[in-house]
Amino acid sequence: MTQYSDSRRKFLKTTSTAAAASAALPYWFTASRSAAQDYKSANERPIFGCIGTGDRWGNRKDGKFGGVGEQVLKYTDIAAVCDVDASHVEQAKQNVRQRRSKGDDRPVETHEDYRRILDRDDIDAVTIVTVDHWHVKIAIEALKAGKDVYCEKPLTLTIDEGRQVIKALEQYGGTFQVGTQQRTEMGQRFLKAIAMVRDGRVGDVRKVTCVIDGSPVSKSIPVAEVPQGLNWDMWLGQCPKVPYRLGEGGENKYYTRTNCHLGFRWWYEYGGGKFTDWGAHHVDIAQWLIDQNGPDQGPTKITPLVVEHPCEMDEYGNPKCDDRFNAASKFTIRADFPNGVEMYIESQGRNGIMIEGTKGRMFVNRGTVAGKPVEDLAKNPLPDDAIEKVYGGKVPKSHMLNFLNCIKSGETPISDVYTHHRAMTTCHLAAISARLNRPLEWDAKNEAVIGDEVANAMQAREQRKGYEIKV
Questions:
Q1: What is the mean pLDDT of the chain?
Q2: pLDDT category, 253, cuts 50, 70, 90?
Q3: pLDDT digit string (tens) for 424-448?
Q4: How many CB atoms within 10 Å of residue 41?
Q5: What is the pLDDT of residue 98?
Q6: What is the reported pTM?
Q7: Measured between alpha carbons, how far apart are the two ends of the chain, in Å?
Q8: What percent of the chain has pLDDT over 90?
Q9: Rounded to an integer, what distance in angstroms lies between the CA atom of residue 89 and that of residue 82?
Q10: Angle 196-197-202 (CA atoms, 0-180°, nearest 5)?
């Protein structure tokens, strides 16, 4: 492995002429014909370590392989896989070996502890597809170790974690892509919607509604024996030490009745419910659309209009029950922005984004772009370069390929840490206001809740000893 990696690095170091030429292109540039061919040469293929190899990585419950791991294997080589669940990591190893070229018998190392991957000099980049509360700690330590990072959304568990990862990126450098694929894929529907807004097709935007669904509810979930091969203490990480829980039911693979795999998102201890699940996608696109995802930008006020939780919250916004899903199941949250736009984050209705302006309205989700402004395109189409202007250049073929091209060029990927932090700040504030059930005034420049000590304290969480995040 060392000899293979050294020869590849030598090749990359001798391509300065090509790198200089590519630097003149937009950072997201992807040649439509030759993009996939760029990584066919063994010397050009970065070596990856994959941290977290569950459902989203590719080890799906239906037995099919698909997800981040599949994307990595299209363009790179995977030298090692890591997971705190032995069943996940063994299946990941088999998936990698089965998809390599015939005769490629290089080892695929398996690890339980992600630090073993970060220690390896032969690994250039990592994917982080763990539970949400592990993202930032691993990402910061990966940057320290000189690795480029592809991390699934939502990047952060708290607002403070966003500041920490930005500080680490600026201190240690590296290429960092967040896995919000709506920015590049999904048939470019979201890009088309943004391009239409930029072209004035709905007039001045006044209201944007993001329907992100509500978190599922559950009955009491019993304490259960920790499955063999699962390091439960390490899975919990920075979160409080609690018993493992598992109950019957939950046919939807994402609604498994547990506080572990495929159920963790519905507990505020490990995530933000739908606020940070679908919110990480739709709020991100909405803030991009209204030009509110840059430095010092964001909402001025967050107001909970409707909130329902599966269990009661105490005065500090903490769930009073510990045996069931506790994230908000029903909500309407209004976010007021300084440019006069009202954003509504809602649980009920058709999943997607409704955009309302002075000249009309349109709706966009992963399946459609609809509304009269869209119908009018038949007679008055967008300029040929309208979607490219959203980016400032050619739209990439895939999220992963954009990441790899940016590793080569040193440019910033499409889903960067900075804009993601601004979108996630709105999502986290929505969750905080819902948990406290009161309005919050937000100072975006100083990143502070005005006049509410409890809400301000909720920008961070206490971290269990031994699992603290340090930049």
A1: 89
A2: low
A3: 999 999 999 999 999 999 999 999 9
A4: 10
A5: 87
A6: 0.91
A7: 30
A8: 78
A9: 6
A10: 95
Length of the chain: 471
Do the domains spanning 2-185+403-409 and 187-391+417-457 agree at the CATH topology level?
no
* Closest-CA residue to 393 (of 150, 32, 151): 32
Write out the CATH class of domain 187-391+417-457. alpha beta
Preceding peptide of 310 cis, ω within 30°? no
d(CA 329, CA 326): 8
What is the CATH number assigned to the segment(s) 2-185+403-409? 3.40.50.720
C-alpha to C-alpha distance for 208 and 415, rounded to whole angstroms: 21
User: Hey, where are the domains in the chain?
Assistant: 2-185+403-409, 187-391+417-457
Burial class (CB in 10 A: 0-12, 13-18, 19+), 445: exposed
Task: Band the pLDDT of 396: cuts 50, 70, 90.
Answer: confident
Closest CA to 68 of 22, 109, 12, 129: 129
The amino acid sitting at 348 is Q
pLDDT digits (tens, 9 = 90+) for 329-362: 999 999 999 999 999 999 999 999 999 999 999 9
pLDDT, position 240: 97
Q: Can you name the residues that pair with 85 across neighbouring β-strands?
A: 230
What are residue 352's DSSP bridge partners?
A: 211
Tokens of 439: 């309005």
Cα–Cα separations (whole angstroms), residue 181 to 184, 285, 415: 6, 11, 8
Q: What is the pLDDT of residue 62?
A: 63
Please say if the pLDDT value at position 38 is more than 70.
no
Closest C-alpha among 435, 434, 451, 432 to residue 443: 451
Compute φ and ψ for 36, nearest 5 degrees. Answer: -70, -30
Contacts of 414 (CB under 8 A, 6+ apart): 28, 177, 183, 184, 391, 396, 399, 402
The two structure tokens encoding residue 260: 């572990």
